[in-house]
Write a structure and sequence with these properties.
Low-confidence stretches: none
CATH topology of the largest domain: Trypsin Inhibitor V, Chain A
Number of helices: 5
Radius of gyration: 65 Å
CATH class of the largest domain: Alpha Beta
Largest sheet: 3 strands, mixed
Helix content: 25-40%
Number of domains: 4
Order of helices and strands: HEHEEEEEHEEEEEHEEEEEHEEEE
Structural class: alpha/beta
CATH architecture of the largest domain: 2-Layer Sandwich
Mean pLDDT: 89
């Protein structure tokens, strides 16, 4: 193929760029140096700005967003709330007893005074209810166990317990408390109790064989009731105690003691057996309840066996069962 003529045309001639003069080169160098200086100052300013922002952020995080907790202890609740509001803080209040801080005043705070608190944050305050006191419950008339439980429920305790005799209060019942009912005392206060042992036992002595009048006087003095009956006794002299019920031991006031006072032996009239033979006289005496003993008369004894006298004498009184002496001639 035949190429067109243009394919064989020489390339166009580009004129050579003019060479910059020395002045132009110096000016360009100065411009480049100025641009570098401007970029350096911008970098310094940027670093300073970032550093400042970092310092401000650190200050805010560690100091700037906090305020100092005010001192509120010993202030009244109203004053404490006012001071907290002025510091930009909320106050949350709880209560507790205190022996030293007056009622209604702040005992303590959390956080404490001088501590850091976030702006708008909260302080917990404990406000005094005053000294803790509890009324002593009614104890007299309760059993010992019930009184101890009542004291525990009142946050008190039972102190020393003593026992005493009582004629009117049942055993085991509280008769006295060391602190009157209704008195307000500290928690844990010990209240001493006096508990009844019931009536005091009365000693009952053995009065058998003793004078009945003395027995009656002594037993009545001890507070016992006495019932006296009488009975004959072949062994206990008249006027003395044959028996008592109950026997020796102990009892209570008001108990009944029964005494049997001796009337002595039963007395029987000695029958008239004068001029009777010995055998007949002995039978009459046996029938009358006597024993007999035969003895010869001191004078005029002739041995005929007739009774001339007796001892004790005929028609006198003698204890039944006693021995009658028959004197015979």
């Amino acid at each position: 193929a035949v190429l067109p003529p243009a394919a064989f045309a020489p390339p166009p001639v580009v004129p050579a760029a003019p060479r910059p003069s020395a002045a132009d080169r110096a000016a360009a160098q100065r411009e480049r140096q100025a641009r570098k200086r401007r970029r350096g100052w911008l970098a310094v300013l940027l670093v300073l700005l970032l550093t400042t922002l970092a310092l401000l952020a650190g200050w805010y995080l560690t100091e700037g967003r906090f305020t100092t907790a005010p001192a509120l202890t010993r202030l009244s609740q109203a004053d404490a709330q006012r001071v907290a509001r002025q510091a930009g803080l909320d106050l949350r209040v709880g209560e507790a007893y205190s022996e030293s801080v007056p009622r209604g005043a702040v005992i303590s705070t959390q956080p404490g005074p001088g501590a850091k608190v976030v702006d708008g944050g909260q302080i917990d305050a404990v406000v005094s209810r005053g000294p803790e006191r509890h009324p002593v419950p009614t104890l007299v008339g309760l059993s010992r166990e019930a009184a101890t439980a009542a004291l525990g429920n009142a946050r008190l305790s039972a102190g020393e317990v003593t026992e005493s005799w009582s004629d009117s209060v049942p055993a085991g019942t509280v008769t006295k408390a060391s602190t009157a009912a209704g008195t307000r005392v500290k928690p844990g206060t010990a209240v001493a109790l006096t508990v009844s042992r019931g009536p005091k036992p009365v000693r009952i002595a053995d009065w058998t064989g003793e004078p009945a009048d003395e027995a009656v006087a002594a037993l009545r003095k001890a507070g016992l009731e006495i019932a006296v009956t009488t009975a004959n006794s072949d062994t206990v002299p008249a006027g003395r105690v044959v028996s008592q019920d109950p026997g020796p031991g102990s009892g209570q006031k008001g108990d009944r003691v029964a005494l049997v006072r001796s009337l002595g032996p039963v007395l029987v009239t000695v029958p008239n057996v004068r001029a009777m033979g010995v055998r007949a006289a002995e039978k009459v005496m046996r029938d009358a309840g006597f024993k007999t003993r035969v003895q010869a008369a001191a004078v005029n004894y002739i041995g005929v066996g007739f009774v001339v006298s007796t001892d004790p004498k005929i028609r006198s009184q003698a204890p039944k069962g006693s021995t009658i002496t028959l004197y015979v001639v």
